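Dear colleagues,

As part of the handover before I leave the project, I'm documenting each prediction I ran so the next person doesn't have to rerun anything. This entry is a single chain, and its sequence is reproduced below.
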Amino acid sequence: MEGISLTPKIEREADKLLAQIARADSMIVAGKAGARAEGFVLGLESACALNESTIDRLYVIFDVATEDRLKSLAPT
C-alpha cells in the first residue's frame, strides 16, 4: 500500500484481501473477494479508523484490483 499511512494490522489485512483478489480463480471468487474488501473498508470508515482521503484511496485500490482480476478472468 504505497503512499498510504496505515497501522501495521490494517495494512496486513488489506494486503491479505488484495492477495485473495489476485489469486481468485473464477469471476465469482473474484467478485466475492472484492465485496469482502469493500466491506473491510466500509468497516474502517464506519469506525472512523482512518481519515476520509485514506478511505477513498483504499476503495479505489480494491476496486481497481477487483476490476483488473475480473477482466483477466473474463472469457475472450
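The chain has a mean pLDDT of 96. Residues 6 and 42 are 15 Å apart (CA to CA).

All the best with the project,
I.
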